Amino acid sequence: MRKQGWRLSWLFLAVFCIVLIATAPATLLSSAVSAASKGQFVLANAEGSIWRGSATPALRQHNGNLLVLEKLHWDMALLRFFTGKLVIDLQWSHVEQAQPMIVTVTVNQIELRNAVLPLYAGLFGEVVPMMKPIQLSGPLLIRSPLFTLTRQGVNGTATAVWSNASSVLSAVQPLGQYHIDLQGAGSRLDVALRTESGMLLLEGNGSFTPADGFRFHGTARAATESKGRLDELLGNFGPESAPGVHVLNVMQ
């Protein structure tokens, strides 16, 4: 009888823990994310549970302000969690997605399928401080069919489209639309920038490695029909290497 009593106690405790986990509120996830990122990443207005819910992600900028993204909805597979694998379906509000983004987390890697990340060009100034005075803006939409992160680095391809680009240093709006290719191969991430259309012509290539940091070499110039109207903006990209062509070199 005593042994049976212990078994019932353990069974009750196991069921209680499962129910507790299954009904944990989304605000618990929000608090955990904020603590883990030391307040740099926030899930605001969290609703639902940690398994199925929604929140508005926001990134803390250097000036302390929050860069607010679109509302994000998630649906985690509870039963897969008990097999040591976390599978999450993610869907953004107001962002076109043919299929939900699927994030699979295991001990060894994080895999992203149908990845979509809606950001804003203001982040350029956060990543490259020398570009902060330009105050670039416009939506920056990143997509990837498959991208993986492991202890060895990143693998996969992604594309970013920066549309309706603008700057406080130019009355010409929009400046254009730009395409950024990302190629991850182990510890190296390659970046290629090109102009799809617009008055400001940008192009360049760079890479990031843990050993060398981020290095980028590019050029900025005005299209023929906008010459003389972008001088102040171009001067903030870097010095002239040829008449009207300004060089942007980043090493950090």
Textual characterization of the structure:
This protein has two domains: 24-103, no CATH class; 108-252, no CATH class. The chain has five helices and 16 strands. It has a 16-stranded antiparallel β-sheet that branches. With 252 residues, it is of the alpha+beta class. A hairpin with a 3-residue loop joins strand 1 (41-48) and strand 2. It has helices spanning 2-22, 26-36, 78-81, 123-127, 231-237; strands spanning 41-48, 52-60, 66-68, 72-76, 86-92, 101-105, 109-120, 136-137, 139-150, 153-167, 176-186, 188-198, 200-209, 213-222, 240-242, 245-251. The protein is elongated and about 65 Å long. Helix content is 19%, strand content 52%.
Helical region count? 5
Low-confidence stretches: 8-20
Order of helices and strands: HHEEEEHEEEHEEEEEEEHEE
Number of DSSP strand runs: 16
Strand content bin: over 45%
> Structural class of the secondary structure composition?
alpha+beta
Please, what is the average pLDDT? 87
- Helix percent reads 10-25%
Q: How far apart, in Å, are the first and last alpha carbons?
A: 69 Å
Integer count of domains: 2
Shape: elongated
Q: What's the alpha carbon Rg, rounded to whole Å? A: 23 Å
Largest sheet: 16 strands, antiparallel
